[in-house]
Design goal:
Number of strands: 11
Structural class: mainly beta
Distance between the termini: 40 Å
Number of helices: 0
Low-confidence stretches: none
Oligomer: single chain
Strand content: over 45%
Radius of gyration: 13 Å
Helix content: under 10%
Largest sheet: 7 strands, mixed
Mean pLDDT: 95
């Protein structure tokens, strides 16, 4: 069993920054890949970023590449999403996800690659 708790969401003006955190508990965090996804009202959930178990590999959706950075601190069992140059179209509920299906994975852009999800944190970007 894995528990994921996101924090750091809020309201920010376009061009601003936010840092999301996802605290994990319940299993050996350092052995599994993590991802961030988001879902805007009326839209399907979409991939944002992923990071391998070691942090050595990262992947981004084209829409956030160059603006968002995913990182992890295995000593703190936490994964982060630094979001810069935010745009109104980034408005969504952001979810972190853990892939404990197989240890030592590199991360996946597919939601089916993750078996645990957090409750989500709202990010609203005003124009």
């Amino acid at each position: 069993q894995v528990q994921l708790v996101e924090s750091g969401g809020g309201l920010v003006q376009a061009g601003g920054s936010l840092r999301l955190s996802c605290a994990a508990s319940g299993r050996t965090f350092s052995r599994y890949a993590m991802g961030w996804f988001r879902q805007a009202p009326g839209k399907e959930r979409e991939f944002v970023a992923a990071i391998s178990w070691s942090g050595g590999s990262t992947y981004y959706a084209d829409s956030v590449k160059g603006r968002f950075t995913i990182s992890r601190d295995n000593a703190k069992n936490t994964v982060y999403l630094q979001m810069n140059s935010l745009k109104p179209e980034d408005t969504a509920v952001y979810y972190c996800a853990a892939d404990t299906i197989q240890e030592y994975n590199s991360g996946s852009p597919r939601s089916r690659g993750y078996d645990y999800w957090g409750q989500g944190t709202q990010v609203t970007v005003s124009s």
